[in-house]
């Protein structure tokens, strides 16, 4: 094609890559009608008017590109191209007349035209999506790049025009001048237009030479986008007439209309003739009959006779079919198409088919078939790849209405209907013959409805005629045999002379869209066809999405001789000596999409590898038909659905890896028949059910991986028969029972991993027989009892992890016999006694973890002496004695974790030379002596924790020279020395804590180099002197605690400007002077405590100091103003100040007097303005009268706030009300000045009448509540009050309350899956447990209900509304007003009026029932005076299935219901009638943990899918990743 034949160049490469999309332009209604010569003239003129808009856009784009081009030759070339377009615009009118048309009226751009022109001009202006181009394109390089981008956007349009018109021209008779659009077509096929298109491409190649690979990618993106916009442009062209065209894209639903799809069945939807299926079924039915049983009424033929009869019928049919086809095939080339001739030929074909059917009826071979067997055969029938998907896609179209009709010669319509019964295809209309039946048994007769092409055509026309005329119609026919020709032609007949053109289009379309169909027409047109394997590979490629273009060489060569062998050189394809495909490796190509059913055509395939892609469909069942497979790897994808059954037939299969997918359903039982398997890896999916006992047959199996699924039941003891098994990984499931004792027979086993498997019982002593066992992972199960001493027989054992179980007793001394042991992890059990002394002699031991047990006694004195010990953690036990000095003899010790024990004696001096140490944690012991010198010289030591011991002496100076320490905690010892002068300048130091010691001297003024310090705590020591000013240079300091020392002098003003300082405690010192004015504007300060010093003067009334707690200022008699009492000008402080001033400013008395007068005027004026503003309430709509207090409104802040009381008050108006409850009205306050949104609850009752207390009591209570911090508790931000009213400020939750989500307007949008509701239940439980168990004194909520549980942006639960909460200093305190809401109130409250933790637990149980049932606590369905608790109890009492009370919106899946029923039990325990029978909230959390859903959670938000980024696989394909 002209210039396109020249090799090289980006333009040619891009055209070759995207030219396949031209088919979507070829088969638009516009081009089909235009090519046929029957396009309505008005439609053509409308197109021409839109073309003018495009030409103008091209001209403008060329103009911009010319400005950007740097080279003069390039400018000249672009100028010529622009001139060509301008000339075309000038001659447009005359050319239209020349083509024989009147000039079109001017019309505005359609949406498709506007999108195309906007895209062209945006590209030419440098506005490319995703490409960073400066707003002002200045440099020559930037300009050249934009010019190249512009040409990349224009080039495909011109090439597409030339290509499509040449395609059409090749189909037209060059001597036929009657085609009204021939001149238009000839124009775009002319050499001039071809040369014009080539010049654009040539210039694009020139401009692209200097571009980078990334910039060439941008051109490719623009080229492709332009191609798609061109397709949209022609697809949107106006079509006035009726037109039947290939369905190349879905109809626009907005356009209305009706779509009718017709399809043949045999050899089109299926790969087989249905008669062969019925023949096979007849033979199988006869085989199943009892040999000596009586003959049924209809069964009259023996099996042998049946076989021979079928063979004879088949042979005769084949022979006569060939004769029939030969007789109707013309012997000479047909020059013109004759419709009548075709009908005559097909009539002969019909006569042949009718005779063949009659022979079948007469033979009686179809007698005795059961209708149910026929339907089952249909359901298991494998349809052509894409067939169901295509029809499902069509049937889902709501407007236009879609109808699908199957027209078939098949003998049995039930077979067709059952084949399509799955999915959404039950509404298909089937038109075929039927087998006559008596009582569901076939008689052998055929009810004949469709036997010939003529009858099929008649049925086709009847359906078309039955359609109404009130809407537009689109008809598509998909056929696969000679008998479909008449319907194909009828679907698109316009004129007889154009018939050749029509047939070409239709056949080309069907080959394109239904690539797997084998057209019967091929027998008429030509006898050759593509190799089946090549077809299968191309079908596989077509079904995949290949973003990296890895399969770009998968295409047929031009040479016919190479068509049958070229595929052997395709990427990922290997052929054997016969030229058939034996290996297909498409791994790690970033492929997505689906795997085509045609893969089953690769019958010689021995190895299939699809690993590590993004395939997310089901794995087709047809894969299991590849019975020659030796290995298959589909791991690390997103395959869904059941795993295909049938691999048991692959007798040579040795390796099957399907790990890290999303498979569900049960494990295929038939895998036990694949007896050659040595590797079976099904880890990391959602398989359910039990492990098949049939796996016992896999006697050659060496690797079995089933971990990370939802497997249940007991592990079959039969697996103990797998004598070749070397690795078994079964963890991360939900098994019942324990480890089968038969596992002691796995004599070849080297690796046993059953961690996190919900296993229980005792560890079998029989495991001690496994002499080759190297790794045992049994952690995080529920094993009880003692560790079997027989474990000492595992002489090959290297890794032993029994942590996180409930094991008790002592550590067996026999473990010391495991001479190869590298890791021993027994942490988090109930072990007691001492550590066997023999552990010190394990020469290979690297990791020893014993923490969180009840072990006691000394450690082995030689521990680490003869081993490469790396990690020792014995924390949280009761060990005593001294720390062995030999721990680091091997020079490998990195982590030494000994805290929370009773170890005594000195810190071993040998540790100061242990260069490998990273962490030393020895806090909370009874260590004595001094800190060894030399720890600071350990270049890897990061953490040193020696707190809460009895260490004495000095802090070694060498610690100050460390270059690696980041955390030092020496607190609560008896150290007595000054701080080393540079210790706080350690470059990596983040935390230094030395509180509660006897440190003396001044704090070193050496803070200039502390780049990482964030926490400094020197409290409760004897430091003297002033606070170093250089401390302000610690730009990352967050916490500074210097309380309880003897510091003097002023507070440095520079501290206030530290950018990250949030907590500053200077209390209990002897600091003097005033609080610096700039403290209120400190950028990050949240907590300031300067109490009990000698400070004086006014407290600044800005920033954090406006809302500071007065307790943090107490003990400073000289402080006044701000939140304290007003400063009294006659106070002793003021007198002293006046006295000092008189001595120093006598010479400037006029200035002084003026200053005093000015200050007084400002003070009085400001005070009056302040009172006036707040007494009137500002813009507070509801007027509040000020009481007798000095300040109308006070804001108590519980953290740093970015707003004031006035900001809050401005938002308290009716339009901002978002809720109303028993304790007050809730307002939504949007605070633009701080870019925050908060909720404000204005309490109903006044501050002087809350329960039996006064306002001071309530303020104190709220103050305590404001200090509560938990992720499941709504955080109180502040408390705003005056004499008459109180308001609480807290976080605003955008998803509202749980009650609203379950029962309100949000119902049906949120919380549509059980995992989301479970997470809310767990969050509420954790929040209540915090209130009940972690707060001292405990907090009783008193009003737990779904409306008091708020949902944050991530749908995480937050408990709200402490309006009536009380601090329960004593158990069972009686309160004077109703606690709780009706439906949630515990029954005992009605007669005791007592509240405690059990009251909250009852209410929590009601909330659980709401989550489970979706119903309110009180519902008319329950009956009069019956609440949800009683309703559930009655169901239990009546022995009714509790599944019926579960919310049906969460699905009826069995495993989900089982999980929910576990939580129903918890809810019933929480709502027990007697308080003593209710569990604590800690027990509830434990029970909820046991009921946790065992599957991946879906999105907790509004259903939008998360990112498509592929996660890192949880389960490695390798059983051992190295030492833990």
From TrEMBL:
InterPro entries: At_inactive_RLKs, HAD-like_sf, HAD_sf, Haem_Oase-like_multi-hlx, Kinase-like_dom_sf, Leu-rich_rpt, Leu-rich_rpt_typical-subtyp, LRR_dom_sf. Keywords: ATP-binding, Cell membrane, Developmental protein, Differentiation, Glycoprotein, Kinase, Leucine-rich repeat, Membrane, Nucleotide-binding, Phosphoprotein, Receptor, Repeat, Serine/threonine-protein kinase, Signal, Transferase, Transmembrane, Transmembrane helix. Residues 1492-1524 are annotated as: Disordered. ATP binds at residue 1242. GO terms for cellular component: plasma membrane. Residues 1212-1495 form the Protein kinase domain. Residues 1515-1524 have a biased composition (Polar residues). SUPFAM superfamilies: HAD-like (SSF56784), Heme oxygenase-like (SSF48613), L domain-like (SSF52058), Protein kinase-like (PK-like) (SSF56112), RNI-like (SSF52047). It is an enzyme of class 2 (transferase). GO terms for molecular function: ATP binding; protein kinase activity; protein serine/threonine kinase activity. It is found in: Cell membrane. GO terms for biological process: cell differentiation; phloem or xylem histogenesis; thiamine metabolic process. It is a single-pass type I membrane protein. It catalyses: L-threonyl-[protein] + ATP = O-phospho-L-threonyl-[protein] + ADP + H(+); L-seryl-[protein] + ATP = O-phospho-L-seryl-[protein] + ADP + H(+). Belongs to the protein kinase superfamily. Ser/Thr protein kinase family. This is non-specific serine/threonine protein kinase.
């Amino acid at each position: 094609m002209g210039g396109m034949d020249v090799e090289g160049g980006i333009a040619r490469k891009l055209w070759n890559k995207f030219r396949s999309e031209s088919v979507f332009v070829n088969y638009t209604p516009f081009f089909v009608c235009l090519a046929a010569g029957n396009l309505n003239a008005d439609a053509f003129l409308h197109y021409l008017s839109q073309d003018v808009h495009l030409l103008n856009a091209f001209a403008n784009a060329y103009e911009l590109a010319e400005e950007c081009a740097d080279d003069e030759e390039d400018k000249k070339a672009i100028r010529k191209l622009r001139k060509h377009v301008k000339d075309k615009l000038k001659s447009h009118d005359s050319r239209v007349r020349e083509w024989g048309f009147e000039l079109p009226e001017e019309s505005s751009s359609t949406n498709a035209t506007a999108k195309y022109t906007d895209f062209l001009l945006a590209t030419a202006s440098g506005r490319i999506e995703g490409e960073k181009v400066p707003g002002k394109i200045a440099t020559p390089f930037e300009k050249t790049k934009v010019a190249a981008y512009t040409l990349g956007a224009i080039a495909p349009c011109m090439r597409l025009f030339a290509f499509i018109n040449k395609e059409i021209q090749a189909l037209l008779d060059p001597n036929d001048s009657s085609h009204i659009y021939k001149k238009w077509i000839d124009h775009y096929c002319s050499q001039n237009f071809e040369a014009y298109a080539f010049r654009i491409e040539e210039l694009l190649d020139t401009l692209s030479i200097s571009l980078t690979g990334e910039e060439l990618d941008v051109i490719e993106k623009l080229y492709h986008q332009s191609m798609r916009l061109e397709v949209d442009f022609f697809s949107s062209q106006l079509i006035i007439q009726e037109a039947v065209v290939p369905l190349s894209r879905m109809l626009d639903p907005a356009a209305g209309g009706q779509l009718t799809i017709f399809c043949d069945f045999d050899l089109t939807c299926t790969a087989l003739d249905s008669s062969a299926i019925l023949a096979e079924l007849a033979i199988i039915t006869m085989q199943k009959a009892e040999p000596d049983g009586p003959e049924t009424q209809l069964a009259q033929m023996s099996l042998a006779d049946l076989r021979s009869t079928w063979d004879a019928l088949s042979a005769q049919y084949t022979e006569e079919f060939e004769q029939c086809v030969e007789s109707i095939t013309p012997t000479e080339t047909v020059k013109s198409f004759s419709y009548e001739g075709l009908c005559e030929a097909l009539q002969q074909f019909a006569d042949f088919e009718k005779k063949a059917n009659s022979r079948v009826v007469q033979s009686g071979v179809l007698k005795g078939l059961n209708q149910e067997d026929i339907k089952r055969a249909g359901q298991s029938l494998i349809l052509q790849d894409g067939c169901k998907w295509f029809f499902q896609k069509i049937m889902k179209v709501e407007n236009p209405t879609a109808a699908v009709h199957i027209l078939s010669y098949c003998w049995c319509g039930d077979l067709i209907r059952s084949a399509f019964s799955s999915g959404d295809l039950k509404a298909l209309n089937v038109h075929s013959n039927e087998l006559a039946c008596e009582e569901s048994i076939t008689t052998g007769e055929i009810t004949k409805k469709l036997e010939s092409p003529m009858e099929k055509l008649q049925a086709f026309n009847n359906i078309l005629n039955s359609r109404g005329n009130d809407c537009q119609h689109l008809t598509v026919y998909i056929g696969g045999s000679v008998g479909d020709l008449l319907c194909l032609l009828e679907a698109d007949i316009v004129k007889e002379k154009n018939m050749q053109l029509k047939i070409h289009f239709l056949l080309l379309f069907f080959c394109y869209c239904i690539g797997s169909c084998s057209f019967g027409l091929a027998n008429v047109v030509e006898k050759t066809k593509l190799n089946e394997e090549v077809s299968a590979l191309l079908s596989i490629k077509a079904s995949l999405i290949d973003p990296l273009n890895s399969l770009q060489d998968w295409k047929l060569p031009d040479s016919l001789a190479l068509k049958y062998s070229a595929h052997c050189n395709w990427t990922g394809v290997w052929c054997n000596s016969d030229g058939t495909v034996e290996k297909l490796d498409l791994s790690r190509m970033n492929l997505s999409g689906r795997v085509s059913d045609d893969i089953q055509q690769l019958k010689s395939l021995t190895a299939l590898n699809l690993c590590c892609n993004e395939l997310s469909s089901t794995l087709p069942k047809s894969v299991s038909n590849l019975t020659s497979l030796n290995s298959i790897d589909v791991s690390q994808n997103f395959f869904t659905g059941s795993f295909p059954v049938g691999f048991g037939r692959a007798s040579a299969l040795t390796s099957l890896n399907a790990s890290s997918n999303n498979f569900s359903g049960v494990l295929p039982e038939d895998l036990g028949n694949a007896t050659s398997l040595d590797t079976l890896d099904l880890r990391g999916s959602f398989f359910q059910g039990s492990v098949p006992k049939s796996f016992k047959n896999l006697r050659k199996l060496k690797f079995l991986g089933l971990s990370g699924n939802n497997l249940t039941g007991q592990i079959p003891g039969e697996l103990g028969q797998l004598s070749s098994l070397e690795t078994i990984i079964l963890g991360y499931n939900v098994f019942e029972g324990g480890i089968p004792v038969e596992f002691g027979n796995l004599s070849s086993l080297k690796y046993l991993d059953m961690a996190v498997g919900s296993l229980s019982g005792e560890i079998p002593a029989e495991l001690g027989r496994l002499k080759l066992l190297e790794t045992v992972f049994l952690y995080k199960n529920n094993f009880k009892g003692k560790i079997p001493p027989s474990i000492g027989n595992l002489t090959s054992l290297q890794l032993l992890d029994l942590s996180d179980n409930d094991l008790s007793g002592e550590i067996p001394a026999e473990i010391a016999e495991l001479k190869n042991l590298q890791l021993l992890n027994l942490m988090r059990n109930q072990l007691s006694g001492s550590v066997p002394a023999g552990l010190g002699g394990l020469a290979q031991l690297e990791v020893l973890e014993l923490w969180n047990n009840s072990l006691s006694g000394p450690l082995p004195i030689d521990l680490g002496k003869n081993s490469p010990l790396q990690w020792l953690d014995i924390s949280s036990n009761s060990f005593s004695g001294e720390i062995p000095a030999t721990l680091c003899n091997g020079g490998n010790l990195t982590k030494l974790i000994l805290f929370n024990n009773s170890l005594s004696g000195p810190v071993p001096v040998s540790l100061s030379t242990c260069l490998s140490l990273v962490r030393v944690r020895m806090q909370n012991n009874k260590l004595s002596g001094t800190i060894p010198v030399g720890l600071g010289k350990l270049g890897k030591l990061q953490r040193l924790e020696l707190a809460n011991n009895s260490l004495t002496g000095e802090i070694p100076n060498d610690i100050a020279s460390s270059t690696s320490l980041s955390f030092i905690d020496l607190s609560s010892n008896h150290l007595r020395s000054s701080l080393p002068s540079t210790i706080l300048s350690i470059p990596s130091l983040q935390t230094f804590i030395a509180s509660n010691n006897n440190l003396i001297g001044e704090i070193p003024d050496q803070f200039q180099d502390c780049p990482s310090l964030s926490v400094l705590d020197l409290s409760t020591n004897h430091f003297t002197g002033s606070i170093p000013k250089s401390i302000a240079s610690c730009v990352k300091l967050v916490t500074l605690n210097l309380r309880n020392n003897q510091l003097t002098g002023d507070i440095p003003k520079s501290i206030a400007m530290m950018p990250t300082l949030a907590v500053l405690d200077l209390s209990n010192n002897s600091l003097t002077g005033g609080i610096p004015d700039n403290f209120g504007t400190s950028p990050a300060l949240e907590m300031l405590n300067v109490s009990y010093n000698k400070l004086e003067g006014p407290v600044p009334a800005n920033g954090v100091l406006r809302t500071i707690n007065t307790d943090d200022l107490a003990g400073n008699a000289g402080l006044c103003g701000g939140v304290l009492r007003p400063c009294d000008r006659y106070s002793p402080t003021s007198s002293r100040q006046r006295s000092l001033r008189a001595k120093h400013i006598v010479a400037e008395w006029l200035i002084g007097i003026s200053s005093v007068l000015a200050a007084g005027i400002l003070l009085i004026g400001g005070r009056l303005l302040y009172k006036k503003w707040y007494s009137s309430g500002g813009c507070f709509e509801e007027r509040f009268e000020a009481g007798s207090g000095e300040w109308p409104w006070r804001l108590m802040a519980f953290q740093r706030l970015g707003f004031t009381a006035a900001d809050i008050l401005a938002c308290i108006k009716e339009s901002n009300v978002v809720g109303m409850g028993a304790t007050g009205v809730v307002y939504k306050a949007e605070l633009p000045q701080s870019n925050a949104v908060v909720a404000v609850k204005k309490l109903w009752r006044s501050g002087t009448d809350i329960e039996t207390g006064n306002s001071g009591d309530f303020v104190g209570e709220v103050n305590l509540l404001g200090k509560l911090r938990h992720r499941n508790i709504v955080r109180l931000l502040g408390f705003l009050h005056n004499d008459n009213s109180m308001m609480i400020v807290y976080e605003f939750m955008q998803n509202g309350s749980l009650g609203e989500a379950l029962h309100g307007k949000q119902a049906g949008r949120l919380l549509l899956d059980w995992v989301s509701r479970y997470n809310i239940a767990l969050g509420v439980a954790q929040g209540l447990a915090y209130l009940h168990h972690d707060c001292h004194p405990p907090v009783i909520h008193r009003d737990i209900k779904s409306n008091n549980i708020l949902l944050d942006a991530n749908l995480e639960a937050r408990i709200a509304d402490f309006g009536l909460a009380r601090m329960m200093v004593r158990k069972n305190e009686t309160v004077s007003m109703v606690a709780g809401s009706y439906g949630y109130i515990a029954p005992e409250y009605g007669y005791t009026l007592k509240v405690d933790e059990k009251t909250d637990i009852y209410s929590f149980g009601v909330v659980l029932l709401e989550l489970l049932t979706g119903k309110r606590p009180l519902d008319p369905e329950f009956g009069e005076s019956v609440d949800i608790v009683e309703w559930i109890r009655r169901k239990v009492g009546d022995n009714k299935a509790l599944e019926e009370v579960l919310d049906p919106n969460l699905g009826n899946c069995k495993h989900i219901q089982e999980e929910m029923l576990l939580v129903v039990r918890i809810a019933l325990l929480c709502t027990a009638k007697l308080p003593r029978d209710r569990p604590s909230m800690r027990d509830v959390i434990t029970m909820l943990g046991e009921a946790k859903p065992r599957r991946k959670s879906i999105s907790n938000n509004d259903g939008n899918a998360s990112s498509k980024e592929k996660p890192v696989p949880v389960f490695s394909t390798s059983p051992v990743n190295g030492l833990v």
